[in-house]
Amino acid sequence: MQPLDPPPVSLLDKYQGHDVQPLYSTTVTVTGGVAGHGRASGVARSDDGNLDLDLRMPEALGGPGGGTNPEQLLAAGYAACFHGAMVLLALRAGIVAEGASVSVTIEFGRDPMDGLFLLTAHTHVRMPGIERAVAEEIVRNAERFCPYTKMTRKGIVNIVALASSDDAPDAA
């Protein structure tokens, strides 16, 4: 197996443009599975086939468990992105963040404003061997840099569209 390298520090360079400059795009399609319900028994597949997993309602929400749920997927993406941003920022500062970890807890709960649902995120960072003041600066900069943190703080552009009944679903 070929060794893997981190992405280039040049990803930290600021973009100067008027419109969003897409760098990567992926599509994940969820179907309903045996219960016909994406959250309870869904199947999630990415357009490149690298993600292919069963979704299951966690026991805490009355489901059987035994599969991944949307909150776990969000937590994994958020933690991976924040960790990557943090490590790149440390590298740019000449610091090796060996042993650094990011844990993200996503809570699915009731929204007291409308009585429906909401998500909260709690991010816990460990940077062993790095002076606290230096680690704090790296974490604060990672908060500004990480698109997941920006999304949770500022929101996300989200366009929901209903396909026509003539559109066949993508087969994955």
Mean pLDDT: 92
Strand content: 15-25%
Summarize the biggest pleated sheet.
3 strands, antiparallel
> Which fold name fills CATH's third level, the topology of the largest domain?
GMP Synthetase, Chain A, domain 3
CATH class of the largest domain: Alpha Beta
Order of helices and strands: EHEEHEEHH
Spans of 5+ residues with little confidence (pLDDT < 50)?
Answer: none
Helical segment count: 4
Strand tally is 5
**Shape summary:** globular
Q: What is the assigned CATH homologous superfamily of the largest domain? A: K homology (KH) domain
Task: Give helix % range.
Answer: 25-40%
Strand order of the largest sheet: 1-2-3
Structural class: alpha+beta
Number of domains: 2
What is the CATH architecture descriptor of the largest domain? 2-Layer Sandwich
Radius of gyration: 19 Å
Distance from first to last alpha carbon: 27 Å
